[in-house]
Amino acid sequence: MTAPVRIGVLGCADIARRRMLPAFAASGDTVLAAVASRDEDRAARTALPYGCRAVAGYAELVSLPGVDAVYVPLPVALHAEWVEAALRAGKHVLAEKPLTTDPDRTRQLFALARARGLVLRENVMFVHHPQHAAVRRLVADGAVGELRSFHAAFTVPRRPEGDVRLDPGLGGGALWDVGVYPVRAAAHFLGGGLRVAGAVLTRDRHGREVDTAGGALLRTPEGVTAHLDFGLDHAYRSTYELRGSEGVLTVDHAFTPPPDRAPVLRLVQGPESREVRLPAENQVALTVRAFAQAVRAAEAGEPFAGATVHGAAAAASAVSADWSEEASLLQADLLADVLRGADGALARASAPSSGTEYS
What we know:
Elements: E1 5-10, H1 14-26, E2 30-37, H2 40-47, E3 53-56, H3 58-62, E4 69-72, H4 76-88, E5 92-95, H5 103-115, E6 120-122, H6 130-140, E7 147-155, H7 174-190, E8 195-203, E9 213-219, E10 225-231, E11 237-244, E12 248-252, E13 264-269, E14 272-277, H8 283-299, H9 317-320, H10 325-342, E15 347-348
């Protein structure tokens, strides 16, 4: 039996506590070895339910001999420093998205990982969910005819004051926090020829120094367009739609579906409409499995293009191949182009927004 990958968690962020630590602990492919925080008590409280080691400080964790791989859920501005530190310490790395806010720095980190024979992956979980492979099959089979446009939105209600996503010094802002989802989805379905045709980033009227909303128009060389919408002060939306010459295919709960939610794909073809119902899947668990398999392949000296899975999750392997250095670099370039395209067009909203909090 293959030994599980021993995971060290660098920080006690909300996504780590709510999603990733339970997934690491529940998976037969991984075991939680340690949790680090700058606050020793917080590390101890976070580690206690899992019976793993609590570590005071990030530097100590990346140097631990009992850790094979490090998960980095720190604010975006801290990713590059600690991803590099973990790689230089000989650890494989799974880091929250985006890996960095600079495509050149992202390339440097992937080059370092390759040079050391280590796995580096961004924690883009939605690409592992089988519903997107089902969408691809439907489009390839002509369900919408010739593809004309892709529309995606990921918006969440207002963040509470003091949230790291509202701190420019920590890499906050709508583009880096929620814009990454529709941008990655557009790249996932439309491919590497995408270019940014225009973009807008908006700050709210409350004086925040980060973008709280945005939109972008992308296009392929063939003229297929991608219309993207994202924001941190909106009614919740997590959806995309592929529109073609003969039909429209819509996916709701596209990016963060609950593990017990059975996806429903809605296809409209002229006056006819139908639903394609799929089994529920846990994309967090699938991501953990894919990362563990990548680590095992690297340590065995084998190339790794995607996870090999079986049973009900087998369809996920079709999209796991997009969980690669090339996919991350395309995403990084597109995000940077959206930011450049919006430069000088960063407007302030003129109307107040809802006070609803999201957690």
